[in-house]
Write a structure and sequence with these properties.
Its EC number is 3.4.11.21. One of its GO terms (cellular component) is fungal-type vacuole lumen. By secondary structure, the protein is an alpha/beta fold. It is built from 10 helices and 20 strands. It has helices at about 10-25, 30-40, 200, 210-220, 255-275, 310-315, 320-325, 375-390, 410-415, 440-460, and strands at about 45, 65-70, 70-80, 90-95, 100-110, 115-120, 135-145, 150-160, 190, 230-240, 245, 250-255, 285-290, 330-335, 340, 360-365, 390-395, 420-425, 425, 435. Bound molecules: zinc ion (ZN). Zinc ion binds near residues 94, 258, 259 and 294.
Amino acid sequence: MQLYGKMTAATKSRALEFLKFVNSSPTPYHVTKNLAEYYNSHGFQYLSEKQELSPSLLKNGKSYYVVRNQSSIVAFSIGGKWKPGNGFSIIATHTDSPTLRLKPKSKKSANGYMQIGVEQYGGGIWHSWFDRDLSLAGRVLVQEDDGRVVQRNVHIDRPLVRIPTLAIHLDRSANASFSFNMETEFAPLLGLEQELSKEEVSEDNEAHHPALLSLIASELGSDVSPKSIVDFELILGDYEKARLGGIHEEFVFSPRLDNQGMTFSASRSLINSLSENSLEDDPCIRVVASFDHEEIGSVSAQGAESNFLLSVLERLSGSMESYYSSMRSSFLISADMAHAIHPNYSSKYESTNYAELNKGTVLKINANQRYMTNAHGMAIIKRASQLSKAPIQVFVVRNDSPCGSTIGPKLAAMTGIPTLDLGNPMLSMHSCREMCGTKDFEYSVQLLSAFFQNFSDMEKHIVIDN
Ligand SMILES: [Zn+2]
C-alpha cells in the first residue's frame, strides 16, 4: 500500500482556510466578493470592464482583476517578460452550486404556517434538503437617499427556514422509496402566522412576507428600510458550518464543495505561484477565471459560455492577430470537483480508473470529450506533479454509466486553447451537504502553482503543433 503524506500543519491549515472561505460564501455574490478581497489583499488592482483595457495601460509584473455581475471574476498576473502574442496559463472554475431560489412572489401560507415559494437552481439532490436548518443569503438592490440603486450582499446567518419530512407514521413507505412533488411538497416553512406582530400584519406586500422584508432590511443596516428594497436574488443554504470530520480529521464535511473547492484552490494557487519572484521571468499571463451559472449550462452574460473571459484575453492581446497566436501558445485547466469512489456503491465505478480521497487531484478523462483531458494535457500536468510532488490520479466513467461534464469543453471550443479537466475527489456531489478529503486542498494548490510557475517552460518543450 502506497503511503501518502501524513497530515502536516500546512495541509491542515489550508483545509481550515477553505472552511473559512466556504462558511463566508453562501452565494456566488459572496464567493466573488471574497475572492476580490483576497486578490486586493495581495496587491491586485481592480479594473472596470467599462474602461479601456489594453496592454499599453497595464504593467508587466503586476496583477489585476475584473468582475462581471458581481458573480463572475477573472484575475490575472502579467509576467515580467510578457508581450502581446505570448501565451496565457489559465485555470477556470465556477462560483455557483445547486440551490433553491426565492420566487419573484415568494409569499405562501397554509394551515397557519408562513411559507416561501422556491425554485430549484441546477441539478441538486433535492431530498437532501429536507429536515435541514436552512439560512438565506444573496444580493439585494437597495435605493439610496440620492436615488442610486446599489447592490448589497446579505447573509442571514441563522437557521431561518426548514422543509420538514412527513412522519414515518403517516407514510410507511418512506424508507423504501422517498419521492416528493417539487412544487407542492417542497415549500420551506418560515414561521407561524399567529406569531406576527400587529405591525407585521398591517403591512401589506403582495410579493413577499412583510416580516421577511423587514428582516432583510434590518440585516442590511439601519439605513435600509423594506421600502428601499428594489429587488433581490436570494437563495437558501445549509446553515450548519463546514468542518473537519472523520477519526483523524481526514474528511471535510461541507456545503457547496462543488465548486467552491476548486475555486478556492485555483485562487490560492495563483497567489502561491507569485512567491519567489517567479513572475519576473514569466513570458505568460497567469489567469484564474471563476464563472457563475455552470450548474445551469453556462449560457448567460457572465457564464463560461459568455464573452467574459474571451473579451479579457482579446483586450489584453491588443490585436486580433496577437490574440489568435496567443491562443495557440496557451493552456487552460478546467478545475471542477471530481467523483471519489463510494464504498457502498463501488459497482457504480469503473474498476481500475477510479479516484480516492486524500490521494491527490483527479484528471478526468472521457473519450467522447465530455472532459477535455488528452495526452498533451497529461504531459503538462504530469510534469507539474513531478515538480511539485503533488499526487495525481485518473478517473474514467463506466461505459454503462452517464457522465457529467464541465466548462472545459465549452471554453476549449470557444477559444481553441488546449484544455484539461481536473478536480479534487469528493462524495455526495450536488447534495445540500457534501464531503471531500482534507489533504486534497493543499495537494491541488501545490499542483496548480507548479503549473503556473512552469507553464512557459513546458510550452516550449512539449511540441504538438509548431
Ligand atoms: Zn461543478
